[in-house]
Amino acid sequence: MLTTPSKKQPMLFFPEFRNWESAWALEALYVVAYEIRILAERADRELAFNGKSPEKLKGAGSFLMKVFGVLAGKGPKRVGALYVTCQLFKIYFKLGTVNLCRSVIRSIETARIFDFEEFPKRDKVTYMYYTGRLEVFNENFPAADHKLSYALMHCHPHNEANIRMILKYLIPVKLSIGVLPKDWLLEKYGLVEYNNVIQALKRGDLRLLREALEEHEDRFLRSGVFLVLEKLELQVYQRLLKKIYIIQKQRDPSKAHQMKLEVIVKALKWLEIDMDLDEVECIVAILIYKNLVKGYFAHKSKVVVLSKQDPFPKLNSKPVNS
Amino acid sequence: MQPHFQYSLDSKASYDNFQDQQQQTAPQGPNSQFPAAHQVTQSYQSPLPNAPSLDTRRVNMMQIPTNPRIASNLALGLSKTDKDGFTTDAAAKPAYISVSMPKPNNKVLSNDTTISMLKPGKFPNSLCRYVERAFNLCKDETQRVACQAIMKEIITKATANGTLNTLDWDVEPLFSIPNSEAVNVESSQYSSPVSSLPKYKRSPSRRSKSRWEPLPEEKSVDKSVSISNDIVQYGGWARKASANSESKENAVNNVKFSLLEQKLPSKNNQRPAKRQHLADGLNAANNDASSDSDKEQSLTAYYSSAKSIANTPEEKKRRESRSKRFEKGQGYRTEVNYFKPKNAGAGNLYSRRARALMLSKSLDDSGSKAVEDFDWDALTVKGTCQEIEKRYLRLTSAPDPSTVRPEEVLEKALLMVHNSQKNYLYRCDQLKSIRQDLTVQRIQNQLTVKVYETHARLALEAGDLPEYNQCQSQLKTLYAEGIEGCHMEFAAYNLLCVILHSNNNRDLVSSMSRLNEGTKKDKAVKHALAVRAAVTSGNYVMFFRLYKEAPNLNTCLMDLYVEKMRYRAVTCMSRSYRPTIPVSYIAQVLGFSSTSDGNDEKDSDGSGLEECVEWMKAHGACLTTDNSGEMQLDTKASSSSLYMPEPEDAVAHGDANLAVNDFLTRTPL
């Protein structure tokens, strides 16, 4: 049975490993850690298939935590800690118990014994990738940007699959802070699902954005970026308003800074989006509130009065205020 | 009782001696128990009464919850003691020490009866011993007669089962001997719960089994099978809790070690004696208008003596065999957990359960049994009560069929609750008891779904979130089993709950991803999704529009977020609007106006307007009146003065609906 061998080997190897002074057996430990995760995954699949509850992966997780504990001491063994951490991350992400990552992360980041730089590169990249993903979940975009970018930078350029994975999360993050990727990037790594999203952002095309989100909804939900992308709606509105502003400026520069609500409603109607005055007023209010539009709204006259200077400030790598 | 207290005057020394003895004997192996026992016996005179002199620290460490049942049960042992004269046996042979002690004569009689009853050679030796043990428990003639009858039944049954020779009678626990009164009772259908413990004070022989055995008001047949029950219970219960049973098992196992069969009666004697010891101390506590410390001390004594048994090699062996019993049938464990076998309330229940156990035990003794292998149907309670109205009482033991309502009655009860005009607490209470009856009878069908749905809806209307969550989780499992119900409605509620209550994006995303295509098309679910979008983007206009046209009870869930949404909205407006906003507009947009659509008269808005003004003021908004007399929100000033006030009706237990007064005035509902 698949389940039995996975328990025995590490049980025999691990206590011995603990006793060895030097880190000569680290490579072997890596193999063991990797295998235990893979085997546990397969075992769980089999268990689930037979209608029993899949507990093996959880068990693998706790075992690896112990391993981590051993490695997290002084001595040459500690360079292995990051590898084990990454295996743990993979397990937790798979199980969905992402909150368990917190303790491991805390150990790595705050413990004085760990010097992040001395870990092997491959581990660092993986680590940054996973922690970056966690930041995305928490919508902590600057941090997510930093981590995922680090991972991207240090990732081996030939490792396309990995780069793709990193980009899958990095792109929504970058979009949220107002940075658009080049088209060839999406093409090269086959991330076509973002194509329309980016188009929509460029054009201020709300309808396109909503369509794109609906089309790939399942994929986005599964990877967890759906909410991030949804938040891009406000940026799309901003773009739309900016376009209206530009057109108005061309027609009559002196009056351009005043935008009638009706005009916005009309524009939206052209996009086949049916919103009434109250709703658009609300959206405008939100835009102003979040500093995507500088100015104010005069309720009586139903006019958006835009600031004369830079009425549509760029995000400049800062996320939209929440 | 006097003798005990005399003993208690003994110094601790004797107890220590005893312990030393134990340690000495321990490594020597079972056979050496015999000689050692002699010495031990002497010093064992009063380990129990001695215990009170032990420090209470031990008591604290043990943290024994005083279970009145235990105390009173053990008290039974004491009364027997009184009757028999403890002193005679007091050269107390602790039962766990296999000892060949001279025993009182009355046991000899039973031997004869035993032998006469069994045709030698036809029955296995272990069975003979079993019978002997049983007879030894009988105090008087009536009991012995009853015992004989029971024995016959058991043996007949075992023969019929084919287990006569396969059952290890040595380890079979004994059935409970009915006391004189009980013997006269018809052992037919037993319906009323046994509550009168005092009745048993006179027949402590029952205490030969673990405290958790069913009381003997059962059919004789039941007894044989309830015994196998006990095996389960022994296996399942905590170490010290089964100290009592250990004593018996010790005796039982000792049978194996014993070289001479005639030792048996004496060993049997030990058992009661030991029990009496323990019971003694306890009852001493009980009877003397017991102070807590007395009770604790006696309990301590009880456990301490149990602990001292703990490390003999014999004991270790027994533990091993006990744990093996565990492995044999995983189903046993589940049995233990499934029922709380305290009251003898349901004779039927026990008989059926135990019968199933016997069957399964004889079927397959090796390998673990899955829960599904058991004949659960034979074990479920079938209710007989006809009352439509029934208060909810939390069960502490297996339920009595006469208090459980069958399905038809429950349907009527549900209808009654539906139509009832009484307040939430009453209906909640009734529903809880319906739920309990359903659970106990393991009814999982549309009726169950309806009940849970009703309760969930009621809870939502009343704003009782914890209750709602309970029902919701039950409904999830029921729906997952394919039972029909208002899936969509509750899927929508579920979604709304996640949206409105958790700040966790991951939960939200996973709930959303779990919706399938069909669900997403449903009106209620669509509404919930739209609410989600509105909340995420802060679109208050949308939110309150959805609020007005919410299907089912979505409003109730949205209600929980209304306050927050309004605050977000006003904050947003204060920053973006200049110079002012008419309050009437705010009232309209934030759902303050009365619900009559299309009714634009000032009156209909009047109440909404006032409410709005009040709300604004409570949140620190700056209101002005303009030239035409209309109230306006001064946005610039408000943007810095808005705040979220403390909820006024915050109650300590968090739910204003469940006011204390309501609880106290429950009865005249």
Task: Draw up the topology in text.
The complex is a heterodimer of chains A (322) and B (669).
Chain A: H1 3-19, H2 26-49, H3 56-71, H4 81-95, H5 101-110, H6 121-137, H7 141-154, H8 160-176, H9 183-188, H10 195-203, H11 206-215, H12 217-223, H13 226-230, H14 232-251, E1 258-260, H15 261-270, H16 277-289, E2 295-298, E3 303-306
Antiparallel strand pairs in A: 1-3, 2-3
Helix pairs in contact in A: 1-2, 2-3, 2-4, 3-4, 4-5, 4-6, 6-7, 7-8, 10-11, 10-14
Chain B: H1 2-8, H2 12-25, H3 33-43, H4 47-50, H5 56-62, H6 68-84, H7 86-89, H8 106-117, H9 125-137, H10 141-161, H11 180-184, H12 220-236, H13 243-257, H14 263-287, H15 292-309, H16 313-328, H17 330-338, H18 347-363, H19 376-379, H20 407-419, H21 424-440, H22 446-462, H23 465-480, H24 487-501, H25 505-514, H26 517-521, H27 523-537, H28 540-548, H29 554-576, E1 580-582, H30 583-589, H31 602-618, E2 623-625, E3 631-634, H32 635-641, H33 660-664
Antiparallel strand pairs in B: 1-3, 2-3
Helix pairs in contact in B: 2-3, 5-15, 6-14, 8-9, 9-10, 9-14, 10-12, 12-16, 12-17, 12-18, 13-14, 14-15, 20-21, 21-22, 22-23, 24-27, 24-29, 27-28, 28-29, 29-32, 30-31
Can you summarize this structure?
The complex is a heterodimer of chains A (322) and B (669). Chain A is mostly helical.
Order of helices and strands of chain A: HHHHHHHHHHHHHHEHHEE
Structural classification of chain A: mainly alpha
Oligomeric assembly: heterodimer
Low-confidence stretches of chain B: 1-66, 68-115, 178-292, 328-349, 362-368, 595-605
Number of H- or I-type helical stretches of chain B:
33
Biased composition (Basic and acidic residues) (chain B): 210-220, 313-327
Biased composition (Polar residues) (chain B): 8-18, 39-48
Biased composition (Basic residues) (chain B): 199-209
Domain PCI (chain B): 464-649
Description:
The complex is a heterodimer of chains A (322) and B (669). In chain A, 65% of the residues lie in helices and 3% in strands. Chain A contains 16 helices and 3 strands. Chain A has helices at 3-19, 26-49, 56-71, 81-95, 101-110, 121-137, 141-154, 160-176, 183-188, 195-203, 206-215, 217-223, 226-230, 232-251, 261-270, 277-289, and strands at 258-260, 295-298, 303-306. Chain A is elongated, with a radius of gyration of 25 Å. Chain A starts with a helix and ends in a 16-residue tail after the last strand. With 669 residues, chain B is mainly α. In chain B, strands 1-3-2 form a 3-stranded antiparallel β-sheet. In chain B, strand 2 and strand 3 (631-634) form a beta hairpin. The model of chain B is unreliable at 1-66, 68-115, 178-292, 328-349, 362-368 and 595-605 (pLDDT under 50). The A-B interface holds A 96, 98, 137-139, 218, 221-222, 224, 226-227, 230-231, 233-234, 278-279, 281-289, 296-299, 305 and B 505-506, 508-510, 512-513, 533, 536-542, 571-573, 575-582, 585, 589.
